[in-house]
């Protein structure tokens, strides 16, 4: 194939071909998906119209996954009513007897589903999380023998907690009634359009995404997301949504409302930012036990690989703010390094490399392996009218 070409040129050409092949296999973090195109997303998506983020396809990923628990969605919005204009311009409105008419359970399910679609998280079921927290509270109450009680702070091995707070929730809809009739438009906890034929609609939501350290409860990152849908006729193309959010028909109905679509696009924005934050951090975990030059850690092969070197950090004295009583963290000391020799599904065994102290149960381990890079489009290429 390369006969007649100099050895130096052959090597250079081979390098170019290998590089091109590796680039061809690389995948972007996510794509905006339309009926006619898939557009890779850039690093910053704040200024992209929410309608382009309603359907997002996540790129292929087979690297380490962070262990995350999604907390209950909190509603801080002041929304307590819903109004719309029906046939012949007649207005209809509903007031709620409770302030929490925002469908927090459904929003939480969508957050969990989107995070699962990314392939970058190991998600811990919140109901199981609640049961563990109750067990821990019982263990610290003094009513359970300490050796048998659950250890506080060991929340199913979660590295991060994700909390979403609804800060704004506005639904304004006008249109003509369809087969369902106006009386059938209000669901149990959220207005759903049912048979309504929408002419003009607008939905706006504010969502605050918070990333919390599961061990210290420190807020590591917060992002305020604003999402507005101003067009009718948009559809959710089912890019990955599973039965968890479709249960009881909630997702099917909610995704047809402008406010529901604003929520979905906002969640896609928020999870996109979370991936950027967690993806830039090294894998971390804790020591389970240490024996005979070997160390067992609570991170498995979804986070580390054989040969990875981990720094072992011994936790120092907890620093408590005298004014607030809140922990400010601790000054940790590096004990040494260990190398992973047997990475299994839920834990790994490592051999000591260099030590200047003893390794204890509960010591923190931090991988020295660089987290995988995230690929973004160079810029946002807004589709031409009718081409998306």
Question: What tags apply to this protein structure?
Answer:
single chain; 388 residues; alpha+beta; Rossmann fold; Thrombin, subunit H; 2 domains; eight-stranded mixed β-sheet; six-stranded antiparallel β-barrel; 6 helices; 19 strands; 32% strand
Descriptive overview:
The protein is an alpha+beta fold and about 400 residues long. The chain has 2 domains: about 30-280, Rossmann fold; about 285-365, Beta Barrel (Thrombin, subunit H), CATH 2.40.10. It is about 20% helix and about 30% strand. It has 6 helices and 19 strands. Strands 4, 5, 6, 7, 8, 9, 10 and 11 form an 8-stranded mixed β-sheet that branches. A 6-stranded antiparallel β-barrel has the order 12-13-18-17-14-19. Strand 1 (about 30-35) and strand 2 form a beta hairpin. Helix 2 packs across helix 6 (about 260-280). The longest helix is centred in the C-terminal third of the chain and has 22 residues, at about 260-280. It is elongated and about 65 Å long.
